Amino acid sequence: MDKVMSNKWVIFLYLLPATLMIGVLVYIPIAVSGYFGLFDWDGVGAMNFIGLQNYTELLTDSTFWFSARNSFYLALFSTLALVVYLGVALVLSSKVKGRELFRKIYLIPMLLSSVAIAQLWIRVYDPNNGFLNTFLRNIGFDNPPAWLAERDTVLFAIFVAIVWQFAGFYIIIYTAALKGISEELVEAAEIDGASPLQIATRIKVPLISGVIKTTVVLAIVGSLKYFDLIWVMTGGGPNGASEVLASYMYKEAFNRNNFGYGSAIGFALLILALLTTVVIQKITKSKESQ
Amino acid sequence: MTKKHGFLLFVMAILMATLVACGGNGDEDANGDDTADTNGDDEEVEERVLELSHLWPEGSSPQHHEIVSGIIEEFEADNPGITIETDIYGNEQYRENLSVISAANELPDVGMTWGGGFIEPYAEGEMFTPLDDLVTDDFVPGTVDAFAVDGQTYALPLELNIAPVYYNTEMFEDHGLEAPETLDDLKHIVETLVDNDITPATLGNREPWTGSMWYMYLADRIGGPDVLTEAINREGSFEHDALIEAAAELQELTDMDAFINGFNGLGNDEAKGYFINEQAAMYMMGTWDLPEWTTSEDNPQEFKDKIDYFKFPTVDGGDGDIDSFVGGPGVGLYVSEDSDMQEEAKAFVSHFVQRWGELSVEEAGVIPATAVDTDGMDLPDMYIDVLNDLNEATNLTLYADVQMGQDTEDVHLDMIQALMAGEVTPEEFAENHEEALAQEED
């Protein structure tokens, strides 16, 4: 086997299928959409080359920046939610009763498709018959908000659903990482008289800091390109209040047939996600070297 | 080691096969209708294939599918030598597929398209051929216009829907109410129902084309049938008094709580659910929902018996009349510009439209775009009423969002939500439309 792997051609051949697939399905489309962004094109007729006009238009497009703001809010909200996930994971990894059951409970949302989750939450938020408002009325709020219909509540309402959707995923990652911490360290700390809280914050969390960094990147990048629940639950409405970058991109390209402009938004989204990733890595790296 | 290489080759072979299959053009999807060759002497006739692409798969639209198959068989029997091959996709797939095959210049000879803004790029890109010579008097006025671009007709409509207001007669009777004839009657109904803690009308304005229909009727009843259309086609202005007044009236209705709480967050299906659960007394929707109130087995007979409809009421002092409808055709048939059998394709389209008009109501519950003779037809009463109303219709105004170009359409839909949420004034509503329409013009 070692002999086989030392042959450069074999390595090349083994990597080829994956490289080919990812190239054809990911990198070429990225380049192509950046290229399409240079055209005024309705997706059907002739393509007019207009240089960087789509991209300069983006800079002054208030809807684009409003969507970008909403996407960044989601990123912030998801990152804060990581703290909660981590807390839950810490509890689940200690020796509490019923932790196996809870692990499964948190995992279930992950097994549902986005559309099913959206339908579920649409019913929770239904202004008249919904679970949430029925509950609120029963405990004495006469006029609970119509969550998805109001500008002030719609983003927050969807964010909660998104946080719920991804809880299982991050909790699994964290519990798995926490399992890797050796018992001896925890026992040693216990003998030294550390409280459970101290063990969690001073021993366990620092030891899985690498994993935490990865999840922060995942959460932020995932939030920036997030689309599913928002699209099904509100379509970016009402009156654009819950528009995010991906839904705006979809609307421009497929509803308004502005393929060129839609591609430009898509490409800008990619650049934003890349920049954010680089910035996060820079920040966390400098801390490491201290 | 050779074994490993063998596996590698196998993987690559699969990969290549997948890629090749993706590149193929799915012609094999043809449903293999057996070609009823009744003519014995087709040896002398040149065998030719006419491609038809439609969006009614056997599984999801069995009645539509069957009618189409019947029409195909008839045409093949009448035209020896011609075989019709079908390519069938469901709605969404069909849309995607259409843009892809048109970009690749591989359109079938005959296919289906939507009207208004949808057809524009295909007409302007000369993908579809003009069909003006096939337009007859049989079409209900206004239906063909939806497929016209720059004065030429690029497809022939098959379906027609208008939007009446369905209402729950029991809920009306319980409170001594009758179907309204004027807007004041409607407001009285709203007040009475609200006072009795009943939601007057349900509306799924997360999909704002539903709210748009309410606005369109008000504009029609106040300013007459042409004001909105002229504002959109730039013969007039959107800042016309009637259009502003219509916006104000719609806002007044929302202020009176005429519409269900949280309508801007509800989808159309959820909104319809409130009507079916008898939690709301009125629901304005296209006649494609007629089966729900007549033949559908999903709803109890007891409920269906309670449902009737009324025409949108007139406004005192307004220029519109009660027989003017908001509505529009669904899909239409186009003939490809590049087709090498254009004559045959046109003949087929004519045949299709004619037979569809004769069969679709009775067999699929679809109102065709051609006039229907209801004599001797076995139809639920509500269908007969709608068909008779259509025969008396003075005007049909195509859905505003379909009339508009795609950029203005988005502004319109957002503005409907904003107006009904009280986020813009009627004046701002009109101003925003005017701006978008003016911008699209240049």
UniProtKB/TrEMBL annotation, chain A:
CDD domains: TM_PBP2. It is found in: Cell membrane. The keyword Cell inner membrane does not apply. PROSITE patterns: ABC_TM1 (PS50928). GO terms for biological process: transmembrane transport. It is a multi-pass membrane protein. Keywords: Cell membrane, Membrane, Transmembrane, Transmembrane helix, Transport. The chain crosses the membrane at residues 12-38, 72-93, 105-122, 154-173, 259-280. One of its GO terms (cellular component) is plasma membrane. Residues 68-280 form the ABC transmembrane type-1 domain. Belongs to the binding-protein-dependent transport system permease family. PANTHER family: ABC TRANSPORTER PERMEASE PROTEIN (PTHR30193), INNER MEMBRANE ABC TRANSPORTER PERMEASE PROTEIN YCJO (PTHR30193:SF37). This is Carbohydrate ABC transporter membrane protein 1, CUT1 family. The lineage of its organism: Bacteria, Bacillati, Bacillota, Bacilli, Bacillales.
TrEMBL record, chain B:
Pfam families: SBP_bac_1. Residues 1-23 form the signal peptide. InterPro entries: Bact_solute-bd_prot1 (IPR050490), SBP (IPR006059). Transmembrane segments: none annotated. PROSITE patterns: PROKAR_LIPOPROTEIN. The keyword Signal applies. Keywords: Signal. This is Carbohydrate ABC transporter substrate-binding protein, CUT1 family. It comes from Pelagirhabdus alkalitolerans.
